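Incident log entry.

Two folding requests arrived from the same account within the same minute. Monitoring flagged them as a possible duplicate submission, but the sequences differ. Recording both here for audit purposes.

Request one:
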Amino acid sequence: MSAVSKGKILIIEDDAALRSSYADAIADAGYTIVTAEDGEQGLAMVKREKPDLVLLDLILPKLPGFEVLKNIRADDGIKDTIILIMSMLEEQRHVLKAKELGANGYAIKGSSTPHEILRRIEALLNPVAEEPANKSVKTYNLFVKATRGDSEKLQNDLGTLKLFTCAVCRDEMQLTLIPDNSRSDGHWFSAHFTCSKCGWTF
């Protein structure tokens, strides 16, 4: 007897290798995967498949990711679909545009492993259930005040304002650390920033 799917994820990504690696990691976690190679096909599949979440690249053939996002949010039948942007575009203007068009989160391809993308997906689908199944292991939520080391470089790369302030609503960003139980050689975490006010995730 087959296991019950945890939800349906549509991956809209033109790079076959990336599409396959993300699909494998997400499917292994119990999700049903559907994929599209370009923006036009992806938009049609959102309408047909009604996925629980769309993992959307921005640089796509036929119809760019921003146009796919705009079309989804303008269609009453699919406008509430959860959308996580996954892109190589990491400038603040791209992050802000995605937020303004209604994306639920933004991940940088070069900085996000398939396992980390899976964590982001699960956090978006289950916002009140981010603690891992092992209740003895805590999820840590930190407010970052440090100005040492690479903090300035990290802020610039993320597109956040000084002291990790949300570029969208100017409130404090919270760093969420989720234990990575797939590693046994020390303390490893998947991490993402969340605005404590508007809920936007990076």
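Request two (distinct sequence, not a duplicate):
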Amino acid sequence: MTSARERDGHVVWVDLSTPDLAGAIHFYERLFGWHYTEQDTEIGLYVTARVAAGPVGGMMLQPPMRPSAWTVLVGAGHLEPVVATTRELGGSVLQTPVSMPGGARVAVIADPAGAALGLMEAPAPELAMAWGDVGAVCWVECLSRDPMVARRFYEQLLGWTSEEGTGGYVVFSRDGERVGGLMAMPSTVPERAPSHWLVYFAVADVAVSCERAIASGGTVLAPAHDIDEGRFAILADPSGAVLAVFEGPPVPGP
């Protein structure tokens, strides 16, 4: 079994914060075929989404005044030093460390360009997330207003190495495994949209997923687009949380 320490610097979880938890449960069940387990906690109801291969991520209710969003969480051995280094490197701390169900501790930071990223200390082994299976996370990437600054920040903070490829797309790695990507914010994205991390979920058919999203009250923000690795589209759920769906060969990852 992989230890929590061995997952430092790797994606270990994703969370959805939404003002309409019941609506999100229904939407993603229809979109991905997820099934759920629920747990009452000190911070309210926490819902874990699952596919046959294992857990996918979590959902929780948040105040209606805050935007709905998916958050990528990366393993961190000890949160306090990483949080302190975040500030030293020009980032900001959006949520100081808090305890979560199962004994994990979580903090949320933002890189100097404004993209939010979660940090998780001691993720529960029983919640080791599925990766690459249909309905599960298959990739994460940062769309940044200042990719050069963001690239240096993540290299220094998380020990990531990076390699730049076609069109300036950067792939981060840790311990020989690909962690995620980084790219400049596309010109087609509205100027009001801040830097952010985007979660990709594997699907069997992108076109069908777009149809299901629309039928369930979601929105297609960017229609199906072919790339060398496969095909993807960008969606928003009924509460506005942005996600991507990807059709193609499994993407190596955690």
